[in-house]
Target: non-specific serine/threonine protein kinase
Amino acid sequence: MFVCFSPKKKREMSCFILSAEKVMNVLLFIAILFGIFGSNAQLLPDDEVQTLRTIFAKLQHRPVNIERTSCSDRNSNFTSGEGNRTIICDCTVNSTCHVTRIFLKSLSLPGIFPPEFGNLTRLLEIDLSRNYLNGTIPMTLSRTPLEILSVTGNRLSGPIPPQLGDVTTLTNLNLESNLLSGPIPSSLGSLTSLKSLLLSANNFTGQLPQPLINLKNLTNFRIDGNSLSGKIPEFIGNWTQLDRLDLQGTSMSGPIPASISNLRNLTELRITDLNGPAFDFPDLRNLINIKRLVLRNCFIRGRIPDYIGSMTELKTLDLSSNLLTGPIPDTFRDLDYNFMFLSNNSLSGQLPQFIIDSKDSVDLSYNNFTQAPSLSCSMPDINLVSSYRSETANSVQWCLRRDLPCPTEAKHSSLFINCGGEAVEVGKDTYEEDLNNKGASIFMPVSDRWGYSSSGTWIGDDGVPYLATDERFNLLNESVPQYYKRARLAPQSLKYYGLCLRSESYKLQLHFAEIMFSNDQTYSSIGRRVFDIYVQGNLLVKDFNIAERAGGVGKPFTLQIDRVQVNGSTLEVHLLWSGKGTNVLPQRGVYGPLISAITITPNYKVDDGKPLSNGAVAGIVVAACAVFAFLVLLILRLTGYLGRKEEDDNEELRGLDLQTGSFTLKQIKRATNNFDPENKIGEGGFGPVYKGVLGDGTTIAVKQLSSKSKQGNREFVTEIGMISALQHPNLVKLYGCCIEGKELLLVYEYLENNSLARALFGSEKQRLHLDWATRNKICIGIAKGLAYLHEESRLKIVHRDIKATNVLLDQSLNAKISDFGLAKLDEEENTHISTRIAGTIGYMAPEYAMRGYLTDKADVYSFGVVCLEIVSGKSNTNYRPKEEFVYLLDWAYVLQEQGNLLELVDMDLGTNFSKKEAKRMLNIALLCTNPSPTLRPPMSSVVSMLEGKIKVEPPLVKREADPTGAAAMRFRAFELLSQDSESQASTFERDREQKSSTSMDGPWVDSSFSAPGKDGNVKQEEEEERSSSSSRKLLDELTEVKVE
Model:
């Protein structure tokens, strides 16, 4: 039944289809109104009633009661929740109503597009978008005065009827995401009132007809994903009102016409995947309002024009996969962009620092940059994989080199990846997890076996995730491998790399299943995902469609390549979207490459299992004897009987594959004035630290290895090998090293503002008065640095001694984590028991302090303590609010339970802080310091929480009643340990002060407490064990904390 509304002074009446259960109430209401107002109801003509009945029947809409009184003006509005069912009538002519607008959207109607629409001679708008209609567009529409026609997301086929050009009243024609074909009729050039013409994701062919030049009122023209021919016509420059122009994946040829510069109102220009030949960069200097400029894979050559940097409204710039050369223009520093994609070109020169420092998404992979700064393989928002030319190979990380050489040993012979999913067992093989939900511009070396690279931004919806799960449609049954349940997708480019593979032949299997469309007769089933597949840089499949290959959605399909040759050590699989297929079904943003799993197995025998021959056995015996003799000589040399140990240490250091520069001893002596005591700024765990100034004016900090300890030299070797591979904005940067004679030196960046501890707790003269924004920035910076160490770096690093003195501040008060001398590689294991406890009482996690149980969650705990200190401006170990509380953390638990957590905020801030951010930061601190390591979040989640991307819900840790005094004993134990720690630290300080008078204007002070293990003095260990036995017993009790 129709329900209509015709307010006074309105030309049209709105009518809605009422559900059956409402009919009786509405009829009663009508009867009452009829009794009040009389019988002046306005009626639909009989022919329109019959036409509507026929239309609904051919659309295969459920039965609807349509009568002449359906457009009565005495009823209320009703909107159905199942979709958008609305009919609008005009009842202003001679007490007669006429249907003017019909909306039947998102109903998955399975019928045809009824030609009877042409019988509604007053019809102004038809919206049948997102249904399941088939058949053709009726030519009878030419009899209507239509202004808007929208049939997006159906299965309509055949050509656009030329008669549609007779509907000169049309202002919006939306035919995208159907199966329409044939040439675009020239008659559309008669639609001079047209403002929006959307033809994307169909099968149109031929050229854009010349009569379209007349469409001077167009503001929106999209024709993506069709198989057109010819060049982009010059007449597009006549559409001077154009706001958006989409020509992605059209198969047209360049060049981009100069007339494009006439389109001064353009805010979005997308042209991709043009055919050759190459052409110079088009003149776009007049596009002053442009916000999204995408010219991808267009054969554009030459330099990027400087004027691009003057496009002040630009938010997305994509010039990837062209023939661009030269440097990135310096004018780009003025751009306020969100996304910049310049990959797959031949850009050269030095990578600008403003790009490296950018917080936005940038993809510069596969270029020819030189003069490389110290960069990491895994940076949060910048993709630099294979971005440097071969001549700079020795000075950059392995991942920045063109051929992605194996940084260790090419030893792997197989690889199994569950793309977008958790680790799963399939037969005897374990498919590794792939759960990182990032992809706008990222290279992620997940392990030494593989990594992935993802690039692009979604059209119409930036919030689309990069992981897909078969939850909405439940397409897959339990009999298929579990890796088909999840998938990774990307809006543009997705690459997987098998790393450190042997130079052999492999069988490659790519597993696919379309899990984002449904398999029923609804509009959710008619999307088309189309992309290209490259293997080892060669096009394997053009216009690959998962559902077509598999015989439907929700069905698995494996693309198998029997022989893939790996000549270096890397196998590359590249999935690339080239503008084809739909991008609005089931909703906007569903398109681009998608893959479920990857299997790589060898075509050679890794181990045939046959017994060794007699000759082989004899050879092994001879080799073993030779190795034994070599080891005896080596031991003699190391113990000083043969050669000098200093030379061996030097060779050991020189053998490291350092990702840094090198310095001569002469340079270092000149920089530090020959290690002048006046330049000594601290005493680190390996020896003194000096401030220096290089010849180019760069201020450095030089860490000099102490010659007193042979153990120290071995630790130094470990430290330099590890630190050289770690580069991140929130880690202290290692500039290089110096190895000459007895001198073993590390050269770091010098940080002007010393440590966070001095900034917060130093004397009045030393202390920095940090405002709230700076504290928030410092906290996020520490979190990002730890997230990099734990999750993003190729090496998995647990710092072990995170505290305020090991966080340094640069000139802009950015936080940088220092002192990796206590860090230990996690060696791909989840946990291990440390034989040497290294850390500082008051910052160490309970499980690590008491049992040596070490995971990255120990760093999370320490971070939580530092976070509390940043907010409160108080030291965790030195601040005693009341006698019964040992630590600041203890007091924080009490205030949280009382609901007075904000009392912890530093009083020096007054009211100049964000209460919301302060409460968030304090709650995060308590979440990180949870007594149970399993309940502490990973640092990547901490970063998201600090940035407000994830809601913070910390557990409530309660201190129970203590009638027996047990709790007091537990806290007393902590107090004793704390005092013991402080006593040792004080002794260390006195010893250091007696040896030299040290300036404190630099950041290099080691204040960590290390409990010796097997390599320490045995007698000292026994004494400490006896003295700490009672305290350790109490510490075990301290973990008995109630967590809700």
Notes: Residues 106-223 form a domain with the Leucine-rich repeat, LRR (right-handed beta-alpha superhelix) fold (CATH 3.80.10.10).
